[in-house]
Specification:
The complex is a heterodimer of chains A (about 200) and B (about 400).
Chain A: H1 2-5, E1 9-12, H2 16-28, E2 34-37, H3 43-50, E3 54-58, H4 64-68, E4 81-83, H5 90-99, E5 101-106, H6 111-159, H7 163-177, H8 181-195
Helix pairs in contact in A: 2-6, 5-6, 6-7, 6-8, 7-8
Chain B: E1 5-9, H1 16-23, H2 26-29, E2 34-38, H3 42-50, E3 56-60, H4 61-69, E4 78-83, E5 86-87, E6 89-93, H5 95-104, H6 112-128, E7 135-138, H7 144-154, E8 165-168, H8 171-180, E9 185-189, H9 192-198, E10 203-207, H10 208-211, E11 218-223, H11 224-229, H12 231-249, H13 254-262, H14 271-279, E12 281-283, E13 290-292, E14 297-298, H15 309-321, H16 329-338, H17 341-345, H18 374-379
Parallel strand pairs in B: 1-2, 1-3, 7-8, 7-9
Antiparallel strand pairs in B: 3-11, 4-11, 5-14, 6-9, 6-10, 12-13
Classes of the chains: A alpha/beta (about 200), B alpha/beta (about 400).
Chain lengths: ~200, ~400
């Protein structure tokens, strides 16, 4: 049985980066038959053509409901597909939903074959979310730096301060007001806009 | 204040009572701290409710029943103590299919029996010409949309599994799929029918009220075990919903309600489109033709909020008819027990309701619905995927 060798896995994800991260992880773990679908039109016919053993889909994807159609008795379906909802494994299900991924498994695939795939999915999805988080933080830190630089410039010009003095003034004001330096800098920019 | 509640919803106008309950302060007035979580698929809403990430949810009534029966999925008993809306769906067809149906029409264009007969002739002609079967979009296998489309076309002899294709499409993709020709028609809730008409690529053929006078659509769903553990929280939640539904039904509040629902983090479409839905005054063709109905979407009025187990039985009968579940007396009882008028009545004195009369459904075809004899009822319909018992 093919499923006993290397199960064929389909990743349905509109994020190419996340799909690549997951695909790479699965390959490293020895799952060689991995296909990524990012085109949601005619999703079902592509899946039927690929005939996978496991389908992984991100929960931000509205097309998850399209996959639910596979449960229905229909001429198009060759094999029944059941979601990974073994009631004894509630923790694993909860972890996957919280990580933002869901799995559909062909009936008959052994549970011990599925577990490593799902665990890998969860860890890669969480890693991706962390990456996105870091990226967002870096972006906002960069933005904040720009705002502080501009506020320093205004202070230097209006009060005849050096750059270091301007920064010290910003920092001490922030401490006194119990606010972030970025917020104080932003209010200086806003005020200078209004007073222009 | 009780512990915070997380409630999931799909951005559709029939989430109105839930959204208004929270955003207009009805839940806060009950001492509830509710966070609404906007979701992208019914599968997500169902799973997050089932595993406890949500305390309650805006849910398709048939999904609540399917979950309680364990159909195609994990079995988690769900109870529905409040109907978020009755009716509210519509069938929209492409301009090409609209022209074809109108050319074959032998009766009133708002009579579903006449349009279904016309559809049957269109389907027969296409088959003769060797054309691809027509494709109809609907939102979920266990959806009112699925059953309403099937009920309508099968009444005139169009077999929904043999003569046409029915495909699941997420509501936000419906309009684009109609525009691209991926589907020829769809059945979906508001605002998507109006969006298709406004874009000039669809005609609203039917309001679902043409097909069924009184059809439960979405429910407020909670896990049965949650309802038993938190009876007072549930009562407070119900009072907030009943208050919100009454607020929505007051015509002088409609503009405010539409602007609350239109917020980008709620439904996120033009307030005017939402207003038309609430008022039951819809543009049905790109040329601006208006159609009014006082039955388009019922939120609270005519006792709409009170769950009616007869409605659950009718939905179960559709599941049986289309082969999603075998006919069994036990399953019928389980399905009917999902709808909990007793929980509703515990916070609201019994008012005007449809009760257990046959008009509880009011289907345009077939005999009056009788939950005591589902087998006999289904025998009256020629097309179906079910097997009689014995």
């Amino acid at each position: 049985m093919r499923a006993e060798q290397s199960p064929k896995i389909v990743i349905v994800d509109e994020s190419p980066i996340r799909a690549a991260i997951l695909q790479e992880g699965l390959r490293e773990a020895g799952f060689t038959g991995v296909v990524h679908i990012n085109e949601m039109q005619s999703l079902l016919s592509r899946i039927y053509a690929l005939d996978p053993d496991v389908i992984l889909i991100d929960l931000e994807n509205p097309s998850r409901d399209v996959l639910e159609q596979m449960f229905q008795v229909s001429r198009a379906v060759r094999r029944p597909i059941a979601m990974f909802v073994d009631q004894s494994d509630a923790a694993s299900i909860q972890a996957s939903v919280e990580a933002g991924v869901s799995a559909y498994i062909v009936d008959g695939l052994r549970k011990e074959r599925i577990k490593p795939i799902l665990d890998l999915c969860i860890s890669r999805f969480n890693a991706f979310a962390k990456l996105q988080d870091e990226l967002a933080r870096t972006k906002s830190a960069l933005e904040e730096r720009k705002v502080i630089d501009r506020a320093k410039g205004i202070l230097m010009k209006l009060k005849g301060l050096t750059e270091d003095e301007a920064y010290v003034l910003l920092r001490s004001t922030a401490m006194r007001e119990k606010k972030k330096i970025g917020e104080i800098a932003q209010s200086i920019l806003t005020a200078s806009e209004i007073l222009k | 204040m009780t512990s915070p509640l997380r409630i999931g919803f799909i951005p559709l106008v029939d989430a109105a009572a839930l959204i208004v309950a929270v955003d207009k302060g009805f839940t806060a007035a009950e001492g509830l701290d509710v966070t609404l979580v906007r979701e992208v698929s019914w599968s997500n809403v169902r799973d997050k409710l089932n595993i406890g990430l949500f305390d309650a949810a805006h849910l398709l009534a048939p999904v609540a029943i399917a979950s309680s029966l364990g159909l195609a999925h994990v079995k988690v008993p769900i109870v529905a103590p409040f109907n978020l809306g009755l009716n509210g769906n519509a069938i929209t067809v492409s301009p090409g299919l609209h022209t074809a149906i109108m050319a074959e029409l032998d009766g009133d264009r708002f009579d579903p029996a006449a349009t279904a007969r016309a559809l049957a002739r269109v389907v027969a002609k296409r088959r003769k010409a060797g054309a691809e079967p027509l494709t109809f979009g609907m939102t979920f296998p266990f959806s009112t949309h699925n059953y309403q489309l099937r009920f309508w076309m099968a009444a005139a002899g169009v077999d929904p599994d043999e003569d046409v294709r029915l495909v699941v499409l997420p509501p936000p993709y419906m309009v684009d799929s109609l525009a691209s020709g991926h589907v020829d028609a769809f059945c979906v809730g508001a605002p998507w029918n109006s969006v298709a008409v406004d874009r000039g690529i669809g005609h609203i053929l039917h309001f679902v009220a043409d097909i069924l006078v009184r059809a439960v659509e979405k429910v407020l769903a909670v896990r049965q075990d949650w309802s038993e553990k938190h009876p007072d929280v549930l009562k407070a939640l119900l009072r907030a919903h009943i208050g919100a539904a009454d607020f929505i039904e007051q015509p002088e509040n409609r503009a405010e309600v539409a602007s609350i629902l239109a917020q980008p983090e709620r439904i996120g479409v033009d307030a005017d489109v939402i207003r038309r839905t609430l008022d039951g005054r819809l543009k049905i063709s790109p040329d601006g033709t208006l159609r009014e109905s006082n039955r388009y979407l019922l939120v609270g009025r005519e006792g709409a909020g009170r769950p009616d187990p007869m409605q659950a039985a009718w939905l179960y009968a559709q599941m049986v008819r289309w082969g999603q579940v075998p006919l069994s007396g036990d399953a019928l009882q389980t399905a009917m027990a999902v709808f909990r008028p007793d929980l509703y009545d515990a916070v609201q004195a019994p008012g005007q309701t449809a009760g257990e009369r046959s008009e509880a459904i009011g289907a345009f075809a077939g005999p009056a619905f009788d939950a005591r004899d589902i087998e006999g009822h289904l025998r009256a319909f020629a097309i179906g995927r079910w097997k009689p018992r014995g």
